[in-house]
Amino acid sequence: MDNRKYLPFILIGAVGLFVIISLSSSLFFKVEPAERAVAFYTLSGELDKDNIITPGWHIKAPWTSIYTYDVSESKVEESMDVLDKNGLSINVDVSVRFTPMKDKIGEIQENFKGNYINVLVIPEVRSSVRQVMGRYTAEEIYSTKRAEVETAIKTETETTLASSQNNVIMKALLIRSINLPAQIKQAIEMKLQQEQEALAYEFKLQKEQSEAERKRIAAEGEAQANKIVNSSLTPELLKMRGIEATQTLANSQNSKVVIIGNSKDGLPLILGDN
Q1: Where is it localised (predicted)?
Q2: What distances in angstroms separate CA 93 from CA 77, 78, 130, 183, one per listed residue?
Q3: Which residue in 114, 120, 217, 253 has the most C-beta neighbors within 10 A?
Q4: 12 lies in a domain?
Q5: Residue 17 within any structural domain of the chain
């Protein structure tokens, strides 16, 4: 059997296999579970924004470009110098967590060319921090209104990033540290300490005033009670109570001494032996 007639087919198959293997990286691509992708058709110049490529293996034409995005949560930490309401320089460290909208990575690719973190997220975070902190004094930012400042920065940044032009979801924003010049920080801490001492002193005064008021009311009540008792102790009532006491003592079986005198109330004085 002459196998030479099959040689051209074998050669064609081998060449085809070689071409497929050589072009496999251009024909096949994989999207990981934490990724999404969009295709750009080079021949037509069209970015297919509406068809988001999901995780798994896919086939494409060698001349089609694939843009892959990590859609898991990312984190950026920024350190910057900002000015407070009075123009005082403050150094602040901010941490922000975010993720691109999975179904909007086509718009993100079109608007930011795959570099949305440096082009969009970081500048917007820095801008919001500067704008919000410019509304407060260093003392408020450092002590009394830190949570309010953090909430305002988060709200403004979240609104901007989530707009229809940006399509980024902000998960969290934290102010990690606020650094003031040493003298300013010391002055603020001293002022806060003095305010706490003043509040403690005011509380002590209020407590003492309350105690004095309580004693005054108690004294007035006791005086009123004594007045009522004294007004009810008439001579007739005292004489009647004396008679009752004398009868009770006289009826007891204990030995007693009876002194008969002409006292003011006319009652005998009876003394028990115990």
Answers
A1: Membrane
A2: 7, 6, 12, 20
A3: 120
A4: no
A5: no
What span, in angstroms and rounded, lies between the C-alpha atoms of 37 and 52?
6
Report the candidate in 45, 37, 36 with the shortest Cα–Cα distance to residue 63.
Answer: 45
Strands (E), 122-254: 168-179
Within this chain, do residues 90 and 145 fall inside the same structural domain, yes or no? yes
Q: Which tens digit of pLDDT belongs to each residue from 27-61? A: 888 999 999 999 999 888 899 999 999 999 998 88
Q: Are residues 225 and 168 in the same domain?
A: no
124: nearest Cα among 170, 176, 186: 170
Q: Return d(Cα 260, Cα 271) in angstroms, integer.
A: 11
Could you give the number of structural domains in the chain?
4
Alpha-carbon distance of 190 to 110, in angstroms, equals: 53
Note the Cα 111 to chain centre separation in Å.
34
Least confident range from 166-170, 195-199, 203-207, 208-212: namely 195-199
Residue whose tokens read 């058709």? 41
Structural domain of 260: 238-272
Residue 188 belongs to some domain of the structure:
yes
Q: What angle do CA 100, 82, 119 make, to 5 degrees?
A: 30
125 belongs to a structural domain: yes
Integer Cα distance of 152 and 159 in angstroms: 11
The answer to whether residue 201 scores a pLDDT higher than 60 is: no
Alpha helices in 23-112 (DSSP H): 24-27, 105-112
- Residue 103's pLDDT is 93
For the packed helices 122-133 and 146-161, what is the interaxial angle rounded to 10 degrees?
140
Domain boundary among 16, 47, 70: 70
